[in-house]
Amino acid sequence: MLVSNLISSSLRKIGALSSGETIETARQGEALSALQSMLRSWGAVSVNVFANIKESFSLISGKSSYSWGSGGDISTVRPNFVTGAYVEDGSGISHPVDIIPENFYDNIASKDTTSRPYCLYFQPLYPLAYIYLYPVPVVVETLHLTSLKPFTEIGSFALATDTLSFPSYYEEPIIYNLAVRLAPEYGRTVSAEVAAIANDSYNDMVILNSSNKVEQVYVVLPAQSPFGVRYSINSDTFR
């Protein structure tokens, strides 16, 4: 969603903008500042509002761990979570990489085994996070990563012309809570309905964000591999 559309929608909720009406540039800038302030305040109380970011970088033969953050091996904004990964070989073929929890990575007996990686453990240290790959790559291929990073750090809402990419359940709390924040500046009174939706959708977002932090659950089954066949309870699949 365009930031400008999000702002316009918020203003319509308090009757400060009519349907089809274009917001003035100055007013848009003021509303954008209010949006930025709101998202920063949410982040300050651990209500993290994330953007879904896709990135890629070249693996290094024989290197299994990579620091992630400003000045790290992956010198981009440090993510809060890694939600997906795959390795692309020289022929452009994609090979899935499972995101595994710490205890699963710790239970790998021989972490020096070499091959194309198919497991990734993300360690969210600060200021640099780390990813650990298993097996250790032996060929220079491309690792593609999908991660969640706070809007406030990636600057994805810096301009009214920016496009925000967020989970569908973020839309309502952002629009309605921004409307509540903007109302006093426009001399408007927030209706009971708008206030209720702002409050309920915010609480729902907090609950959903908390539930999304639950790690994948895996069971290791004996098999002819270094540490067994992996079964994911979440996806009901074997690897």
Please give a structural write-up.
With 239 residues, the protein is of the alpha+beta class. The chain has two domains: 3-48 and 166-211; 50-149, no CATH class. 31% of the residues lie in helices and 24% in strands. It contains six helices and ten strands. It has helices at 3-13, 25-44, 102-106, 151-154, 168-182, 192-211, and strands at 50-58, 65-68, 81-88, 94-100, 119-123, 129-134, 142-150, 218-221, 229-232, 237-238. The strands form two sheets. A seven-stranded mixed β-sheet has the order 1-7-3-4-5-6-2. It has a three-stranded antiparallel β-sheet with strand order 8-9-10, with no helix packed on it. α1 (3-13) packs across α5 (168-182), α2 (25-44) packs across α5 and α5 (168-182) packs across α6 (192-211). The longest helix has 20 residues, at 25-44. Residues 214-229 have low confidence and may be disordered.
SS elements, strand count: 10
> Any idea what the radius of gyration is?
22 Å
Q: Distance between the terminal alpha carbons, to the nearest Å?
A: 36 Å
How many structural domains in the coordinates? 2
Q: What is the approximate shape?
A: elongated
> What is the makeup of the main sheet?
7 strands, mixed
**Proportion in helices:** 25-40%
Architecture blueprint of SSEs:
Layout: H1 3-13, H2 25-44, E1 50-58, E2 65-68, E3 81-88, E4 94-100, H3 102-106, E5 119-123, E6 129-134, E7 142-150, H4 151-154, H5 168-182, H6 192-211, E8 218-221, E9 229-232, E10 237-238
Parallel strand pairs: 4-5
Antiparallel strand pairs: 1-7, 2-6, 3-4, 3-7, 5-6, 8-9, 9-10
Helix pairs in contact: 1-2, 1-5, 2-5, 5-6
